[in-house]
Amino acid sequence: MTFRVLLNEIRHVVSIGLTRLGYPLENFDLLEPPRPEFGDVSCNVAFQISKKLNRKPYDIARDFVESYLKPILAEEDKAGQYSLILSIEAHQGGYVNFRADYGNLAALTFNEVFENPSYGYYNIGNGSHVLVEHTSVNPNKALHVGHLRNVVLGDTIHRILKTTNHKVSVLNYVDDSGLQVADIIVAFIFAGFPVEPDEKSMKFDKYCGDHVYVKINELYKTDRGLEERRRLVLKEIEDGRSELARFASTIVSRVLHEQLMTCWRMRVHYDLINFESQIVTSKLWEKLFILLKDKRILHLADDGKNKGCWVISDESESTDEKVIVRSDLTTTYIAKDIPYAAWKLGLVNDPFFYYKFSEQWDNTLLWATTLDSSKRSTDHPKFNSADRAITIIDSRQSRLQTIISDILLHLQQIENRYRHLAYEPVTLSSKTADLLGVQVGDRRSMHMSGRKGVYINADDVIEMVHSRAYEEVRLRNPSLSEEQLDEIAEKVSISAIRYNLIRYDLDKIITFDIVDSLSLEGDTGPYIQYAYARSRRLLEKSTEKRCQTSFWVLKEEQEIALIKAIAKLDLVVEDAARTLNPKSIARYVHMMAAAFNLFYELVPVLKEPKMEKRVARVALVEAFSRTFKNALDLLGIEPLNEM
Predict the structure, then answer these.
(1) In a domain, 141, yes or no
(2) 537 with 569, same domain?
(3) Burial group, residue 507, by CB count within 10 angstroms (0-12, 13-18, 19+)
(4) Which domain holds residue 41?
(5) What is the pLDDT of residue 448?
(6) Could you read off the pLDDT of 460-515 as tens digits, one per residue?
(7) CB within 8 A of 256, min separation 6: which ones?
(8) What is the distance between the alpha carbons of residues 242 and 431, in angstroms, rounded to a whole number?
């Protein structure tokens, strides 16, 4: 909390000045000026009171600064209460501009960086429990590159919330009772597809998705009997007690395990696996249906096209109704999602037991739900009844998620407990598709379709990025062993993919390009990792020991920019946690990397002849390195000492 301290000092000075002026405003804004010459912080207070005083904002700002703010600063100067404010001036545009005392700001900032390993992680959660659901890929196929945006987005949200003192539980919802699972079971049981792929090295999830799922959907066109078999399989799976249902469960588990291996390679953490079949079998919907009818959230349509159906009216579109239960009393797909959402917030009793599903890459336990009391463990965390639930699904599900949110709001009468975080899909550039052996013709990018088999597996993309990263690292470090090269290449490739999927606005379609993502120049993961590696090399070569020194000597433009960036981490983290916008962290780390690289190129550190400056600059590099590492951790980017 360093630049935050400067902002608090400014707010305090302005508030005292307003009280003395006779206009004690509660709200005024502190902004970052558009250009450095305007100072470090601008205040719009003159605009707030210009109408009341019937004067021009500049005239108010000028008199306010000279007659009130500067005297307040002078009065308190002896006590050092406003040690971070260097000067105040009125701008002709009407803003009051403040300049920071960077000697004192650096001393305060560096002391906190060196003393606090969690520097920059700001407490806004106060231990509140948040559920984050992401991934949720149908267990009949491998993840494709579009799924990776969901996975990386969800994991980054988890990291941000965890470091802002939220108790976070990450859920992966497995739709093990849907048509997609039924399709591959039909293929194995009734269409004669071998359960094991011909290629022994092929991952089982890839085999099911790329071969079995695509081929069985082609067979449906010519063999109508298979569609009848699919209805039978669906019924057996939902019932859950037959030999066929147990076989389906085995297949789902195998696919799920392979999907998790892909996610774990991306350094993604989960806490709990939920199974849709258990939502159905638990009778949660039946209990919730009674509650929804009692509260008149659902009503029975007595005329029109939905006559005989139980529907919910969409208040934003009064003429539209959403069918929840059909006239034949079968439920629509949303009837499975509503009880799951209600379970998250503790609006229904928890019907599940929990067992230890697997150990993860980070040595934590992954739990799973079960309805079998013989499998339960008693030492599991509490997963449901969260204070908030965040569901990460692409924008095509926005309509459905709005309906769920409205239903929950009617149930609990508390807003903002359920949040859908939507995002747009990922396409592949034509160059990347070509590298992966997919022909896209004259198109600049490729959209994907699982049913048509037109998509690129996430594993293939990761392997391709890893392979290219390995060659780049080997060329730059010919003396390293194969094991070292492979380890660095893996960290570079995973970071390149993660950063590329985070740095865009959520409402923008991403066109992923392998070559661009690995560039050491520009807005990429490797560029950011390279800045950290540079800082570590400087520190390894330095013979200076960190000690008490004056930071007034850090006066170069590049030094000031770096101090300011280091001091702002907690503000950026707070903003990202409140807005659930991981891009703000990506923008911050890129800004920091650019600031450090400019400092590295233009300001001598180890070759600085004056010892006082040299010691101060080494401290600046160390403060950058520690702060930068904390910021990278939020994005799941592994810092590298060499590249």
Answers:
(1) no
(2) yes
(3) exposed
(4) 3-100
(5) 58
(6) 989 999 999 999 999 999 999 999 999 999 999 999 999 999 999 999 998 888 88
(7) 139, 174, 273
(8) 48
What's the confidence (pLDDT) of residue 319?
47
CB 381 within 8 A of CB 366: no
In a domain, 291, yes or no: no
Average pLDDT value for the chain: 91
Displacement of CA 234 from its chain's centroid (Å): 34
Measured distance CA(506)–CA(258) in Å, rounded: 27
Instruction: Give per-residue pLDDT as tens, 403-421.
Output: 899 899 888 877 789 999 9
**How far apart are the C-alpha atoms of 368 and 307, rounded to whole Å?**
40
Kindly state the tokens that stand for 592.
């920091």
Q: How far, in whole angstroms, is CA 26 from its chain's centroid?
A: 33
> CA nearest 427: which of 525, 518, 523, 509?
509
Q: Which helix (H) or strand (E) holds 265?
A: helix 243-265
Distance in angstroms (rounded) separating the CA atoms of residues 332 and 324: 6
Residues 23 and 84 placed together within one structural domain of the fold: yes
Q: Which amino acid is at 200?
A: K
Please indicate, yes or no, whether residues 506 and 557 belong to a single structural domain of this protein.
no
What pLDDT, on a 0 to 100 scale, did the predictor assign at position 578? 97
CATH number for 78: 3.30.1360.70
By C-alpha distance, which of 601, 582, 578, 610 is closest to 530?
601
157: pLDDT strictly greater than 50: yes
For residue 364, the 8-state DSSP code is P
User: Residue 74: its pLDDT value, please?
Assistant: 87
Give per-residue pLDDT as tens, 297-321. Answer: 998 998 888 899 999 865 544 445 6
Residue 530 clears pLDDT 60, i.e. is over it: yes
Please state the domain count of the chain: 3
Domain end (from 485, 500, 517) = 517
Q: Are residues 511 and 529 in the same domain?
A: no
Neighbours of 351 (CB within 10 A): 16
Domain assignment present for 154:
no
Beta strands in 134-245 (DSSP E): 167-174
CATH number of the domain that residue 539 is part of: 1.10.730.10
Residue 441 pLDDT greater than 80, yes or no? no
- Token pair, residue 441, equals 């013709």
pLDDT at 86: 94
User: 505 in a domain, yes or no?
Assistant: yes
Higher pLDDT, 378 or 590: 590
With contact defined as beta carbons under 8 Å apart, do 492 and 520 qualify? no
Query: Exposed, middle or buried by CB within 10 Å (0-12, 13-18, 19+), for 152?
Result: buried
Instruction: Give the position of tokens 């040299």.
Output: 614
Residue 79 has pLDDT above 70, yes or no: no
Alpha-helical runs (H) found in 318-429? 334-344, 398-412
Q: Which of 100, 127, 160 is the endpoint of a domain?
A: 100
**By mean pLDDT, which of 49-53, 371-375, 474-478 is the weakest?**
49-53
d(CA 608, CA 334): 66
Extract the tokens encoding 34: 């558009």
Q: Is the dihedral of CA 64, 65, 66, 69 positive or negative?
A: positive
Q: In this structure, what are the phi and psi dihedrals at residue 86, rounded to the nearest 5 degrees?
A: -85, -45
Give dist(CA 561, CA 611) in Å, integer. Answer: 22
**Binning pLDDT at 50, 70 and 90, where does residue 440 land?**
low
Q: Are residues 78 and 95 located together in one domain of the fold?
A: yes
Q: Rounded to an integer, what distance in angstroms lies between the CA atom of residue 383 and that of residue 346?
A: 10
Q: How far apart are CA 151 and CA 145, in angstroms?
A: 10
Q: For the whole model, what pTM was predicted?
A: 0.92
| 496 and 548 belong to one structural domain | no
510 plus 465 within the same structural domain: yes
Domain shared by 554 and 609, yes or no: yes
- Identify the CA nearest to 366 among candidates 260, 254, 524, 508: 260
